[in-house]
Amino acid sequence: MTVGRGLRALAAFVRPYRWLALLSPAMMGVEIAMDLSQPALVSRLINRGILAGDARTALETGLWMIGAAVAGLVAGVLCNVLASRVSQNVGADIRSALFQRTLRWSREQIQTFTTGSLITRLTEDVTQVQTLMQQLQQGLVRGPGLALGSMALAVCLDGRIGLLLVAAAVLVSAVLAWTTHLSYQRFMCAQRALDAMNQTTQEHLVALRVVRALSLEDRALARFDMANRDYADASLKALYILVTNTPLLNLVLDAAIVALLGWGAPRVWRGSLSPGHLVAAINYATQALSSLLMSASMMVSAAQAMASADRIQALLSTEPAMREEANAKRASDWPHVLVDRVDYVYPRASHPALEGVCLEIRPGETLGIAGTTGSGKSTLLALLPRLVDPSAGRLVWDGEDLRALEPGSLRQRMACVTQQPTLFRGTVRDNIAFGRPDAPHADLVEAARIAQALEFIERLPGGWEAEVGQRGATLSGGQRQRVAIARALASKPRLLVLDDATSALDTATEAAFLRELRHLRDMTVVVASSRLSTLWNCDRIAVFDKGRLAGVGTHQELLASCELYREIWDSQMGAAWEVMSSE
Amino acid sequence: MNDSAASRAAHTFALPSPGGPRQHHTPTVRAGNPRQTASRLLSYLGHRRSAFAWMALATALSSAMSLFAPYLLGRAIDATIRGHDVHRLVALLAYLAGAYLAGLTAGFIQSLIAAHLSQDATRAMRRDLFARLLVLPMRFFDAKNVGELMSRSTNDLANVSNGLNQTLAQLMASAATLIGCMVIMFWQSWRMALVALAVVPVTAGAARAVARLTRRHFQSLQRELGQVNGFIEEMITGVETIQLFHQEARILDAFHARNERLRRAGVRAQAVSGSMGPTMNLMRNLSYALIALAGGLLALHGLVSVGTMVSFLNYAGQFSQPLNQIANQYNLLQSALAGAERVFEILDEPGEADPPGAVSADEVKGHLEFRDVSFAYPGGPRVLHHVNLQARPGEKIAIVGHTGSGKTTLMHLLARFYDPDEGVILLDGLDLRAVAKSAWRRKLGLVLQEAQLFSGTVRDNIRIGRPEATDDEVEQAAVQANADALIRRLPQGYDTQVGPGGAGLSQGESQLIAIARTLLANPSVLVLDEATSNVDTRTEMRVQEALARLMHGRTSIIIAHRLSTVRRADRIYVMAGGRIVEEGTHEELIRRRGAYFELCRLQWGAVDQEAQRLR
Predict the structure, then answer these.
(1) Is B504 in the A-facing interface, judged by CB distances under 8 Å?
(2) Fold (topology level) of B368-584
(3) Domain boundaries in chain B?
(4) What pTM, to 2 d.p., does this model score?
């Protein structure tokens, strides 16, 4: 773990609040001083009050102690309020910076981090760092502060007692450093065992029907038992450290107290140490060592928070890959696209997903993209709105290289619908108007009508104002796809890109939609599907095979000229029957 | 867990420590029926009586020592002040060292036993939970998201484990210390005891007030945090959509609004909850000061000794600590009980069971009949209406229809994930409900759209079909399923790890292995849900060929998506809206020009030639 690098990067976020961030530990210093004054005052009360028989001094000292306690409260509360302001503001600023950055990342960058990990970093990791910020001004100042202060006072009180205390503190710190390190490691082990156990559970529960159908219950339970035992063992191993830690540290502390007494009493008898000082020394010993122990327990969570800070820093140091050229032009509204000798290789992939693809998208046409899973259809479609840029070759929009255009203006010219579109929490209307929030209602209705969504929307409880839930959870797969299509149409694109966007529609609904689409004269459509029944009516069809273009033409032309097209057609439409029956 | 280590350490410490440890204060969720849940939770620990007894003994010893040590310390200080008595001092120090050593040894034993007990108990609970989930009827899972169910259970069990580990011994210890402390204080000096106790109600009142404020502010913080985190999750998941529609600026504005609310709620909640520390610190310092003041004045009048006063300074710390700890442990216990209650709720769900006298299906001929079957998923509308359907031994039956027409439900009923609400399914003339579920499922081969492989080797996965099969038989089945060649090309052949985290197989390849698994199991009846999406054409051919072998001689019910499969069937049932609307062979149905004809035209487009051919 590179402790500190992440924290240094976060220091920039503290800068706007630096005065508060300095003031709150200072307040903590006051609180510590007030706490530390208590044993010193008790010592004074014993020596000058009780033993000297001076009731007035005793009373005065007692009142001073109460005053110190109250002053400590004021300082403590102030410290907390200031630290809260700093930590919560820093947390909010970090969250905001991360969110802003993530919105500008390319698909590749998001996939490198994975969506799940991005969400964790923006939520849990930020919370962790926020807590750490609070601790850095409060708890992590208080523990070591009390320990150092106690030792310093003990040294002032009596040099030799102080040295004994420092020796004990060094020993305690060494033990703590070692056990903290060890327990962090063992908790990580336990965490891994837990992940493995959860994976086993997940695997069997997700496929529970199969488990039942194959009568796999016993096997599943045996597997789970194994993972469960591993996890329990790993947890115990981690707990052993904690269980041993406490008695070990108490041993040092208790030994220090006995030593203080055994060593101090003869000096009291000789008159070189006052009884009050001995009591104070014992107080300081307890204070110093128990404060160290407290800091140790915070160190484990601080170490986790450091790891969080590192993960956040990794996001902050990743610049959006897609830069806008300084002299970028706005995309024209003439949707003529040339795909010019394009290769695309996914990061860390050994084979290109697209290789030497040349294709023209003509204004006004409906172009079908056919091919099996993994043939490169979706990759090609992701190039159009520059979700990814080609590894080699270029795409040209009305004579301009796509990379010379403002990505925003390009994306305003087109609309894309994928197989599993993302809807957002909100009403059906919010979702359909997503790309054009100011669209008049009539436009939304028209878009919904073409997308075959109007009928079901009007039947929803609440109609256009019905809530769709997170990711459109209250809608069926087919309804989600139709809302997504309506959303795309409502943004009035010149180029509509449909990537298997009708896969969950039944064939009649799909046919009706495609029929409506053909009536839209001023829209160019690119539609990819693995079902040839979706495509065979297109103006032209481009067939992809393992990243290469295997043929372009009309349905009839391809049946005559493209062997792969014929094969897919036969396998979907039934000629496989002849092959099978000849067996 | 670390908090507990520190607080445990703190409570065995022997001397007063003004402003010592400070705990974070967060509100908790409570169980609905704590008493019943607690006794059930204890039953998970109950079989370890002797361990319990040892732990109680260790706890008692450790608590006693933590009270005895400050007393000895006070005497040692008195001895120091009173005069030169080396023997007395040495003796007192030896006792003190002995008390410390006994206390920390007992404490060690106590936490060791607690760790073992809590881990054993939660491990047993995890096992019971998983075993229960395996046998719960499918309708239990319909309403739930598996991921959510899992994370909830993991979380609940973590709370149980945490709670048990930290409260088992310590609640006892805290209570013992508290009571012991009081007894000793009164025994040593009732005047001083009253002074020490005077602060308790003030402390309790202050803690309650802060806790109540905290709870309110934390609720609004949790709400805002939930809003922001939900928003982040939703928008990061949909970031591509936002980019495609060029809505980054609008979404960022919406985020800022939520983030601002969270910022304000966060500052408020933290400022309030964080004041618990300084408040408790004030109370400790105040009681410390009061004891010193009162003790000092009493000592001046010779009513107490300086040593007694020092002991009391000690006890004051000891006294306030268990009070705080009991409050903390009470909260931990509450979340543990709430977690346990939710786990027990699942354990109490009735599992799938066979009626008494269920017969095993040894000799299955494979004659299946749906007689007037109707069905609705729990809480849902009726999805099957009076379905009549028949498959004679060895026949291939195709079921076709749009999505949502009820095809998959038929399959669920056949596999007995559910039973019909009305009507019966007959197997060789016998009500299927009278057949033991597991026996029937062994006779039934189920091939789903997406083949499910389990983590393990390829060999394991094929052998799942018949665990006692030899390697030879496994490989035979793979050859039959057209999977042998592909398996041999894998890095470790039949011993290659597959499933989650294993070798990546394509959908078609997994399908072939699943077919080998089914072939090896040698079922009498086959239910097949054809894959809709096209795998690559050549693998597809191999899958079709393997399926043809699998169906040979077996009663097969196929949810068909391909024209080729339908044409091959002995009989086709057309479903629409949960009803069977047509039945017959491909030729008959095409000639009829009804629902089937329309379906073919829409689904496969190419029916015109077909119609011509049959004219």
Answers:
(1) no
(2) Rossmann fold (3.40.50)
(3) 8-15+27-188+322-349, 190-303, 368-584
(4) 0.74
